[in-house]
């Protein structure tokens, strides 16, 4: 995992499909699970979806909370 990927989860939008335009960090678990079963796309998008799936599956979505609150200043 690349550290910058955690921040990208909060800023990168799903480019297509049912949840087009939604931030990857905000995708529902069942949708991420579908990708895990059917296969993640190639490239960075697939890496981000796989990372978000792991966070969701292991109940670690809260790891993103400090990044959500911290913003650019790093202070919550």
TrEMBL record:
InterPro entries: QSregVF_b (IPR024530). This is DUF3820 family protein. It comes from Massilia niabensis. The lineage of its organism: Bacteria, Pseudomonadati, Pseudomonadota, Betaproteobacteria, Burkholderiales.
